[in-house]
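User: I'm curious whether this sequence folds into something compact or stays loose and floppy. Could you predict its structure so I can see for myself?
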Amino acid sequence: MLKSAGRRAVAVTAVTAVCAALFSTGTAEAIVKGGDSTQRYSFMASIPESVKQTGDRGVCGASLIDPQWVVTAGHCVDANLVIPDGIVRIGSERQHSGGTVRRIARVVTHPGYALQNAEIPFNRNDIALIKLDRPGAGQPIRPASRPGAPGTPTRLLGFGTTVDTNDFKKAKFAERLQELDVRRGAESECGPGYAGRTRLCTVSPRPESMACIGDSGGPQIRRGAGGRWELIGVTSGPGTAREGCAGGPGLYSSVPAYADWIRRTIRG
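Assistant: Here's the prediction. I'll summarize afterward.
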């Protein structure tokens, strides 16, 4: 996640929010106090990249929603912030091996995307689509038709830092995919004005746990019909003006809110 406009260089992977890099602590746990993945998520993707201003290595998360398209955060492909390696790894529980590797053929950032700044404390329309050079081998996840009411159980996935920090030099990125069970929060549980129709407030029942830098762009999922996982959110950043990742709620771009734009982009 991006903590502030002045930290553009470290905004790459938010825990969510910064790019695949969002929130975390100094143990072997990532997504800050998450745990090793308990099942295979064939739609989970990772985007290796480097911070443009410093050269620090980072990662963003993404989700395969069509055989040839993944969805991620807008700030994960922001050319002012990061330089993607040009590949996407899909369907592996390891950040640097396994799964299917595809090259990036095209990037489409939402036209209303805006990085947080002195006037806007959060990223607006923080969502982007990446077209792969050819279909991936994973099973895409279905975007949910609605995010679910506050209190709905959800799950976060990511390869983000295992240390709760916004400094890439101090980050310790997870090699093994991490997951954390959380819930949809009410808009009032995030900072004033942070959550809304297009931005989901996300709350963890576990103290000091949430996504962090390196988790940005990654999925927030919930069980749909028949117990199948559905995609409701894209990791964007912190849900309040606090320092650090794990001490409060997270903010996620609502996939259902952008359903029409996603469909038009993929079909067009």
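Summary: The chain has one helix and 17 strands. The two ends are 30 Å apart (CA to CA).
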